[in-house]
Amino acid sequence: MDGDLIYVIYGDRPKKMVRRILEHVDIAKDIPSKDSLVGIKPNLVVAKPAEQGATTSPELVEGVIEYLRDNGFHNIIILEGSWLGDRTSRAFQVCGYEGLSNRYNIPLIDLQRDGYMYYQVEDMKISLCNRAMDVDYMINMPVLKGHCQTRITCALKNMKGCIPDREKRRFHTMGLHKPIAYMNKALEQDLIVVDGIIGDLNFEEGGNPVQMNRVILGKDPVLIDSYVAQLLGYDIEDIPYIGMAEDIGVGSSNLIDDNIVELNRDTAPMSIPKTRLIEDLTGYVEEDMACSACYGSLIHALDRLQDRGCLYGMEDKIHIGQGYEGKKGEGLGIGICTKGLERSLSGCPPRAKDIIDFLEKYYI
Length: 364
Ligand code: SF4
Prior knowledge:
Blueprint: E1 6-10, H1 14-25, E2 38-42, H2 58-70, E3 76-80, H3 88-94, H4 97-104, E4 108-110, E5 116-121, E6 124-129, H5 130-134, E7 137-141, E8 145-147, E9 151-153, H6 155-158, H7 165-173, H8 177-186, E10 191-200, E11 209-218, H9 221-231, H10 240-247, E12 260-262, H11 276-281, E13 285-287, H12 292-307, E14 318-320, E15 329-334, E16 341-345, H13 352-362
Parallel strand pairs: 1-12, 2-3, 2-7, 3-4, 7-10, 13-14, 14-15, 15-16
Antiparallel strand pairs: 1-11, 5-6, 8-9, 10-11
Helix pairs in contact: 1-2, 8-10, 12-13
Iron/sulfur cluster binds at residues 266, 290-291, 293-294, 321-322, 335-337, 348-349.
């Protein structure tokens, strides 16, 4: 698989979706040998089920395991070191990974209890957990979500679960961005499978889940994070660790639309309950049969605009959804379905960044 490609599949059935995308790309060809130690690194930052927007869906990981097994790879481990406020063992249990481990006989490696070694990266010494460094083929499975300090967290930041707890504390004293970028120079990831089914609006611990209904696959963590930044309504420059990682050769932020391969279209409606914050944001929206992928992008865009104080005084509603297909009229619409309206943003689904640029131009 070419490192400059990103694959996207939409839907709300993670196990089936990931299976289809892995088969499409034929990832088995990339893994060095049938005896390779394959490490799966989910995001289990806290002990909360995936529906709350913080952690990787066990169904998605199950799809990856079944694919690997069916292609003759049996040397598989799942590794994680939760954040300082939680125990990994509790996260494995609450997030459904103990059951997964028992069903498939796959070891769960608690990196909070692992040994570590120091690695020199440019001018920085970084300690990394030994079991993570032993892996021959690392599959990083982050969640597509916002973060209260770094704005987004995805491929690059998820590897922070592979450092000891005292190093996590030190990363925070250094402002996170530079150590996150440099850690990724020493700790390579071979494949990234992003859980974009449900991720949080703006907080790594969850609490305001947004249904984005997609799985994203790629090999370059810098490219994946550049794409994700725009999906969540940011410019690449808003996330300093992306540029820092690119500067030291971790990957490329050169996003080319033609290199984003979408395998299908989303049609599933929003099915998770809205929190108070999301209810407030959708007060600006007139929705009629909107797909979750589209609606989720709009929610992220509105939250970013609200943070900038741009939503006050907005009186007209924003139209979105398949119910507007073929309709003509005044007003503002998001997505190709609303192309008959006076002002409409194309895309199916559009990125939050494009929605922000569009609303700023015409509306705010
Ligand atoms: S543009 Fe229409 S069909 Fe496409 S994702 Fe949005 S609501 Fe769904």
